[in-house]
Amino acid sequence: MSEPTNTDPPALKDPESQHPIAGAWRPMLREVVQRFVAGDYGLTHGVSNVEPVSMATTEQIRLYLADYGCTLVELPEDTWQTSVSQWMETHWDILVDLWTLEEGRSDLVLAGRVVETKTGIRFTIQMVYVP
To answer: What distances in angstroms separate CA 99 from CA 4, 9, 44, 77, 121, one per listed residue?
Structure first.
C-alpha cells in the first residue's frame, strides 16, 4: 500500500454527503490548531491560506476554550478519522475535531469555511464550539 499524499483524500464537491477533510488542507489546519495551543487565537503572524481572524472570533475562541476547562493539544493523526467537510455549492463547510490533554478527542470542534480562489484555497475560521 502506498503512502497517502497531501491530496489524499481529495476535496470532494458532493453536496449530498460529508467527506473526510482533504489531505491538502490538513497541514494548514494543523498549524491553526498549533497556534491555538500556544494561545494565539487571532493567528497574529498569519497562517498561509487562512483569512485574518476578526477580533470577535478571536475573543469567542479564547472565551470558549477557557470555559471548556481542558487543555487544548495539537491535532493527532486520528483527528482525520472523524473530522468532516461538506460541499455547499460555493464552498466547503468543515468541522475539525479538537483534542485535549484531559480527554483525548473532545467534544470541541473548529468550524470554518474553505473556498476556492484563482490563487488556491482560502480558509475562514468561524468558531470553536461544542455542536
So the answer is: 23, 22, 22, 11, 25
Residue 43 lies in a domain: yes
**Residue 94 resides in a domain:** yes
Which residues of the chain form beta strands (DSSP E)?
Answer: 19-20, 72-73, 84-87, 92-100, 104-117, 120-129
Q: 28 is in which domain, residue-wise?
A: 19-129
Task: Please tell me the pTM assigned to this model.
Answer: 0.92
CA separation, residue 67 to residues 38, 59, 94 (Å): 17, 12, 23
| Residue carrying the nine cell digits 458532493 | 14
Residue type present at position 59: E
The domain total for the chain is 1
Length of the chain: 131
Q: Is the residue at 14 inside a domain?
A: no
Q: Is residue 63 in a domain?
A: yes
Count of beta carbons in the 10 Å neighbourhood of residue 98:
27
**Tens of pLDDT, residues 3-32:** 445 568 999 999 999 999 999 999 999 999
